[in-house]
Amino acid sequence: MGQADRLRVFFNSIKGKIFTLFLVAFLAACGLTLLNVWTLAAVRERLHLSERYDDLSSAILEARRYEKNLVIYGGGDNLREGMAYLDRAETALSDLGEDIARAAGPEALESFRRTLGQYRRDFAALSPGQEDGKDGARVSGKGLVDQAEELIALRRARIHKTIFEVSLVPFAYLAIFLVFMVILIRVIAASLLRPLGLVRNIAERVAKGDFSPVDDGGGRHIVEVAGLLEALDRMALELAANQEDLLQARKMAALGTLTAGVAHEINNPLNNIALSAESLIETHGDALDDEAREIAGDILAQADRAGEIVRNLLDFSRSEKARFSPLDPAVVVKSSAALFKNQLLLSGLELRLDLPPGLPAVAGSLRHLQQVFLNLLQNAAQATPPGGHITVAGRVDGGFVRLAVRDDGRGIAPENLDHIFEPFFTTKDVGQGTGLGLAVTYSIVKRHGGRIEVESEPGKGATFVVCLPKAGEPAARPDGDEAGGDLGDVAGEEADSRPGDRP
After folding, report:
1. Answer CATH for 3-186 from 1.20.120.1730, 1.10.10.60, 3.30.420.40, 1.10.10.10
2. Which distant-in-sequence residues (6+ apart) come within 8 Å of 170 by Cβ?
3. What would the DSSP string read from start to end of 341-404?
């Protein structure tokens, strides 16, 4: 990721937005502070200039006072003092010339200079008893005073304007603070509150069992919220994927409890039937004809068959802990195939093993895993026509060892795929199976912390995939813990719940 991409991600995050917001507010505060300093400096400068304007006005007024004294009393002292004050006025005017030109214009400055020069000439020409000179000095002096007062009034207006501008700075601070708060509230509402409401709605929806993907309305979210929504989306998908397994495990737990009670209740009358048949044969065997002995033998055989089913049900519902140890997957599969060798020969099928060397060990019970693969191999053999092939392939899939059992049968009908792991589900004819084989297999695999999946298309065979965690890897929590532990061996056709005659 380039520098530009990292910056874009940063500024699209909560901390980036808050950082930007505070940076803008800080820069605005710095700008207002500088403006305040500048305006205060301007006020200080204008107050200083105001003092010079006062000096100019005072010098002119003092010159007018000596003008009166000179007209009334005469005397060289009044003339000298009046001219000294006019010199001061000219000095003040020289200092204030630039400011007067900026505030009132060059024309006003030039007019003031002319009036001051005229008054200076009129003042120098004054002498007692000369009315013409007195009138000229009085007129030019009054014009000079009026112009000075106009300049002072203009200067005061500028000072008042500057003070007013300075008084607006706190309100500018308040306005920036209000804008900052509004933007901050909008950022929090858009970046946090609205997404949190969306997260709450998603959580409530998931709590009600709705695991559909997250719908964020197509809006763009900040990085943290986008990551959270993505995680919630993955969680919903995982929950949806595991919901069927969870329901299956709960169903098996309830059925395990039910079948345990039923099996115990049935076992006693079956034992009585078997004992009665054995006693009949032993006690009255010589007195029975061939047909009666055959009937008694059938009673004994069917009682044994029912007893075997009861033992399978008890195995299915048992909750003992199995002892796990590291096992070589190749040993598990090959030992299971050896136990199934004779049935393969009788069925005219070929078993192919595709087990690469060096497969990681899995943690499990050899007897239970043999039962898993015996069930799967028997199901595959019953579904595959003579001359077909059964393949067991293994490979590593992340933290799991994946063992797939494939056959060349007619596959499983789509409407049956969701039910094949349910206890007592079978499409076989009555008496051909109990529907416990794949239910027991499912429970054993879950007990080992793994999972079992099925892939099938009608006419293209079926593949049962058993995924077992590597030895030493943290296994997933089995969903079917309540359904059984030490499940025991489930024999032959009694263990089969996958239809041998697939639709």
Report:
1. 1.20.120.1730
2. none
3. HHHHHHHT-EEEEE--TTPPPEEE-HHHHHHHHHHHHHHHHHHSPTT-EEEEEEEEETTEEEEE
Query: Distance (Å, rounded) from C-alpha 457 to C-alpha 449?
Result: 27
> What is the residue type of 418?
D
pLDDT over 90 for what percent of the chain? Answer: 6
pTM: 0.38
Indicate the burial class of 443 (C-beta count within 10 angstroms; 0-12, 13-18, 19 or more): buried
d(CA 417, CA 498): 10
Residue type, 33: T
Q: Are 472 and 399 within 8 A, CB to CB?
A: no
The 10s digit of each residue's pLDDT in 142-190 is 888 888 888 888 878 877 887 787 777 778 778 877 887 887 777 777 6
| Spans of all domains in the chain | 3-186, 322-495
∠ at Cα 359 (355, 364), nearest 5°? 105
Residue linked to tokens 């024309």: 107
CATH number of 322-495: 3.30.565.10
